[in-house]
């Protein structure tokens, strides 16, 4: 934990504000290079952390997970509000396959790679694979916006919808495998004795997530459409939408469902049934989501201990490369070939599977669960995310142009 009592609230406030200002200024410059803004926030956190010039110790993984979950909920709700329903309908089948079967295939192949390069047992390798198998909505949305790509609607929607839908699958696999590896968990925890025991947990997460998200989205859309909203209420509507997203996220998680899936579905329905209120809130929500991403990646950067990461940098880089060039393409080919996607589209979908905050947040779960060498999961996930943002992000737009997928503006 960062101990700030002696420093005083004014100094702490000034330090946090300065970090955000520096990160934003740096992000504006890196944007010209095609790099993700998120890299700068993470780098500033690392420079502030224990191995950086300021040397501030921070090891509160629980706080990082809490902030991460709230930030991702807001980002997914905002993503749903920005997506038109007709785009989602045409992409639902391929995105759903990638978000379920694709995640399972990716995790399985990564488990084999982890056994080879990290000498992990199969179960632990599968846990690591589950943590890094999910593409990250915040990274995908941010990179697509920065790259200004103009893709065919079905292709773009498939990538964006998949990034929102695959979080529940990855989270269920991660939590279920941790429960399997720690049989003496908390009273009342679901018992997982085999992979088949994960199916009821997955069904509960997805089923309740869809149900609560649909009901909550319809109710929120009906109520919001009745409010006396005018054009000068954009700030209030952004605050209202953020509060609705957090409320739905908390209720769904409390009921045992996937709050991430629920908020995305709810956002889609609010946009579809209360479009004026939804679009009015988007400029303000954009600022909230940037703040959420900034705080999240600053925290994740603070959590990283670079000298520990360097101990396994070689195997971690091999695993990251295996994920990008073997596991992800294999999963995409298996899911999209039967649906008539051409090889160019498959190549782009495979390469656009950016990793961001979600794998790092999920990789903190083994640390919180007290698994032996749990720090390895976090450090490897960090390398995977770093390589993805450094290599895949800047090359998305050139690849789209090379493959002939970036359409000219009408």
Automatic annotation (TrEMBL):
Residues 20-402 form the Cation/H+ exchanger transmembrane domain. It is a multi-pass membrane protein. It comes from Roseateles saccharophilus. Its main location: membrane. Keywords: Antiport, Cell membrane, Ion transport, Membrane, Transmembrane, Transmembrane helix, Transport. This is Cell volume regulation protein A. Gene3D superfamilies: 1.20.1530.20. It is found in: Cell membrane. InterPro entries: Cation/H_exchanger_TM, Na+/solute_symporter_sf. The keyword Transport applies. It comes from the Bacteria. The chain crosses the membrane at residues 12-31, 38-56, 62-81, 93-114, 205-224, 236-267, 287-305, 317-342, 348-368, 380-400. Pfam families: Na_H_Exchanger.
